[in-house]
Structure formats: structure tokens, C-alpha cells
UniProtKB/TrEMBL annotation:
InterPro entries: RVT-Znf (IPR026960). It comes from Cuscuta epithymum. Residues 22-108 form the Reverse transcriptase zinc-binding domain. Pfam families: zf-RVT. This is Reverse transcriptase zinc-binding domain-containing protein.
Length: 248
């Protein structure tokens, strides 16, 4: 009786793809399935919010505890002071920075939310309470409010600049409003600049036109006054700290 010699060939396979080949998509799906975020399951509501992608990405990092707070940095053996970048007093944990910090508390009050009742437990527990009791517009406010606080924290740490709590929330709100305006699909609601025609005011009246512009260095606004004959009466320009939306 003859014996056949069987040759076995071993090769590496990726068990989570039918083809056996590795893919980033299958790796992500596997990791996402394994990761369990304790105490909060509001991912769907968060992704459906009408907010800029970078704010959603920030909020995902926040809920996953991936933000480079000083507490997280020290846990990764980074030599830094574990102090809050907003108040400069307590340890900078996620719960403190966005809920318990005096600056955060004042900021939330400025947009009509009292966080004292949600200050207990973990940050994800606070989110669970919020997403169970708030409607979508209020949820969006919470998300961009957290982003505004993080922006202010970085502004104080890296630029040594400071806004008060109300200005922090106002600036974040204006950023979101500007993004939403740019996303409008209905072009009929947006007047084309070329279709605008300046008209003389009524006899005995003057007309003032204003405009504003903003970039990463600051804001500027100007005005021009003309009489019923179309003659230039006066005008000016001024730079300011703030948002072009409010100036207009």
C-alpha cells in the first residue's frame, strides 16, 4: 500500500474578513463592537445633530475619554501639572473641566442650563441624564457648549488669552450658526450678491449701509452713510473682538 505525502501550506489570515485579508473597515468594526461605553449609549443622537464634523469628532473624543486633559496626559507618563486649564485650581479631569469647573458652570448658566443637578457621578452618567431628558436642539447646545469650553481651555493654555464664560458660549454659538448658514440647501432663501441694488432713501432721509468681515486674526466692521441725493455723508471702520454675525 503506497502512502501519499501531504504538504501543508500555512499562511496568515485575517479572521474577520471572508477573504482572509486585512482591511481597516473590518478592524474598525471589530474594535467598535468590543468597545463598550459604560453609562451612555447616545451615539446615534449625537451623530444626528446638525453640527460641524469637527465638533462631532471632538465630542466623540470627549465621550471616549481621549481628550488630552492633564489627567489623561499624566496617566500616559507625560510630565505636566495636573491643574485645570480654565480655573487653574482643581485637577483637570473631564468631569471637572466640563461640569464642575466654575468657568463651565457659568458658561452653562449663560445658555440656560443649570448643571448642579448633573454634577454627581461620572461624566458619561451626566450625558446619559442629558440625552434622556433633552430634545434635539438642546442636545446640540450641549455638544457645541462642550466644544466651546475646550476651545477656551486651549486658548488660555496655549495663547494666554481669556474670554469670560458668556463670551465663550456666544463665540461657539456664532461658529455653529455660521456653519449652518453655509449648509443651507435652499438657494432661494439666499439673496445673490449680484442681485442687490442700492436705492436712494426717501427725500429728507439718510441711509446707512454696514458690512463686517472676520478671519482667524480678528473682526472688522464698517459703515457708510449717504443722503437722499446719493452723496456720501460719513462713515467709518473699526476692528473688534467678537463675531461678524453679531456685528451685522
Amino acid at each position: 500500500m503506497s502512502r501519499k505525502r501531504v504538504t501543508q501550506v500555512f499562511r496568515k489570515v485575517w479572521r474577520w474578513e471572508a477573504s482572509g485579508r486585512f482591511s481597516v473597515r473590518s478592524c474598525y468594526r471589530r474594535l467598535a463592537r468590543d468597545i463598550q461605553v459604560e453609562g451612555w449609549v447616545g451615539w446615534t443622537e449625537m451623530w444626528n445633530c446638525r453640527l460641524p464634523p469637527k465638533i462631532k469628532s471632538f465630542f466623540w473624543q470627549l465621550c471616549s475619554d481621549c481628550l488630552p486633559t492633564t489627567k489623561n496626559l499624566r496617566s500616559r507618563m507625560v510630565n505636566c501639572q495636573e491643574v485645570c486649564g480654565l480655573c487653574g485650581k482643581d485637577d483637570e479631569s473631564v468631569l471637572h473641566l466640563f461640569v464642575r469647573c466654575p468657568v463651565a458652570i457659568e458658561g452653562w448658566k449663560a445658555i440656560g442650563w443649570d448643571v448642579n443637578g448633573a454634577a454627581g457621578g461620572s461624566f458619561l452618567h451626566c450625558l446619559e441624564l442629558i440625552f434622556q431628558t433633552k430634545k434635539k436642539p438642546e442636545l446640540e447646545k450641549v455638544v457645541w457648549g462642550c466644544w466651546g469650553l475646550w476651545e477656551e481651555r486651549n486658548r488660555r493654555v496655549w495663547q494666554n488669552k481669556t474670554l469670560n464664560a458668556s463670551q465663550v458660549m456666544f463665540s461657539a454659538s456664532c461658529f455653529v450658526d455660521g456653519w449652518l448658514f453655509a449648509q443651507q440647501k435652499d438657494q432661494a432663501k439666499v439673496t445673490a450678491l449680484g442681485a442687490q441694488v442700492w436705492r436712494l432713501p426717501k427725500p429728507g432721509w439718510c441711509k446707512m449701509n454696514v458690512d463686517a468681515v472676520r478671519d482667524h486674526t480678528g473682526s472688522w466692521f464698517g459703515w457708510a452713510v449717504r443722503n437722499s441725493s446719493g452723496d456720501f455723508v460719513g462713515g467709518g471702520i473699526k476692528s473688534g473682538r467678537g463675531s461678524c454675525f453679531s456685528l451685522e
